[in-house]
Amino acid sequence: MSFKSQPISVGITKTFPCSYIETELEQLLVLQEDNIGLALFEQLLALGFRRSGGTIYKPQCPHCNACLPIRIPSFLFTPSRRQKRTLKNNQDLIWKIVEKQTEHHYELYETYINVRHKDGPMYPASREQYNHFIDSGWLDPIFIELWKNDTLIGVAVTDILPNSLSAIYSFFAPDEHKRSLGSLLILIQCRLAKLMHKDFIYLGYQIDESRKMNYKRDYTPYQILTSSGWQQTPEE
Q: What is its EC number (predicted)?
């Protein structure tokens, strides 16, 4: 695979049990480069790839195509009634952007994983695991923090690219679940994309068959990557 003047070597993993659909096997196209430019990585995003740490990957499963790359056109997005309620109900919170991870980030992540995702592949949380999926060596994400008075209650890890934002991962205080902080953090990223004049927010993969991964269609209009390219849903 080659992009402009930079060749890219792509490998494929062995099959392994899927983390999201119990009856399926997962397989990934992977590439790991010491240095990838932001424009090149954005091209890969547009082809359906994602990153975890320095590894860029894309599902290439033998018998399943449930993982649908999804993105939001930022200038077309309008919050739904439910999302407007989420924004209104969280007006007491403050959000800000920091460029470096802190000890508070990891403490919140550890609590989130160990309470909310005991049945997932990231349990139990560890510092090594946390650093592995954030640090790449060639791209430094930003951290969008949510604060309730003097307490950090949410973090969104986000990549800033020339024409888009890419949502890497969000975590929040489990005891604040009534605030819908996961949704709030996506809404903040949508707002930030507009402020930064970015055209898209990449949300990763929509998996309709997975209860934990089927919420991304709530942000309309959205685009799904198909064999014919990105297809946009009508506004609701």
A: 2.3.2.29
Contact 28/60 with Cβ under 8 angstroms? Answer: yes
> How many domains in the chain?
2
* Structural domain boundaries enclosing 124: 70-232
CB 108: neighbour CB atoms within 10 A? Answer: 22
Which tokens hold the place of 216? 């991304």
167 with 91, same domain?
yes
Strands (E), 10-163: 11-12, 16-17, 25-26, 28-32, 50-52, 55-59, 68-73, 94-98, 142-148, 151-161
pLDDT band, very low/low/confident/very high, at 236 (cuts 50, 70, 90): very low
223-226 and 229-232 strand pairing: antiparallel
Residue 179 within a domain: yes
Task: Give the per-residue pLDDT at 233.
Answer: 85
**129-185 pLDDT, tens digit each:** 999 888 888 999 999 999 999 999 999 999 999 999 999 999 999 999 999 999 999
Beta strand spans in 44-175 (E): 50-52, 55-59, 68-73, 94-98, 142-148, 151-161, 164-172
Residues 137 and 54 in one domain: no
- Are 76 and 192 part of one and the same domain? yes
The verdict on 40 and 54 lying in the same domain is yes
What is the three-class DSSP state of 105?
helix
